[in-house]
Amino acid sequence: MKAFIITASLVSVALLTSGFSLISKYDVSIEDTFKEVTTQNPYTVEVCEEVTTTEGDVITGAIWGAIFGAVIGDAIDDENGRLPGAIIGAGIGAKTEEDKGTVTGTSIVCKEQTRYTAVQGIEYSYSTISFNYEGSQYEIKFIK
């Protein structure tokens, strides 16, 4: 196969360099093949949105309230004061933070985003040389 490709390449070069009479005698043609490509071109845009902020965190308030409630409940009643103090403290802490959360503010937050635009194009892919030699049709693909 390698010998055939080398021979066909040499015949092609000889045909192309020997003039038009040989080209028409051997019915030589060269055809370029192109392919469609899509290129993604990046660009950036600034996107702004209005964000609502809250000041309170209910879970954090419940945790700290439970801790302080357990400590105070233990100080009030040495035997069984921790659990009721923790439950009451968690409720008070969560409610306090929930009340803080009702105070909301809004602000404009801007971020840069990368977006892409698709550009369609055509680019060279490969070429094919076709020729007849001693009654057989040959084709060779190559890249210029």
Task: Produce a short descriptive summary.
The protein has 144 residues and is of the alpha+beta class. The protein has helices at 2-17, 20-25, 58-76, 82-101, and strands spanning 29-54, 104-133, 136-142. Strands 1-2-3 form a three-stranded antiparallel beta sheet.
Low-confidence stretches are none
Please give the largest β-sheet.
3 strands, antiparallel
Number of domains: 2
Count of DSSP-assigned helices: 4
Helix content: 40-55%
Measured by DSSP, the beta-strand proportion falls in 35-45%
Which structural class matches the secondary elements? alpha+beta
Arithmetic mean pLDDT: 79
What this model shows, in words?
With 144 residues, the protein is α+β, with helices and mostly antiparallel strands. The chain folds into 2 domains: 1-54 and 106-144, no CATH class; 56-102. Helices cover 42% and strands 44% of the residues. The protein has 4 helices and 3 strands, in the order H-H-E-H-H-E-E. It has a 3-stranded antiparallel β-sheet with strand order 1-2-3. Strand 2 and strand 3 (136-142) form a beta hairpin. Helix 3 (58-76) packs antiparallel against helix 4. The longest helix has 20 residues, at 82-101. The model has no long low-confidence stretch (mean pLDDT 79).
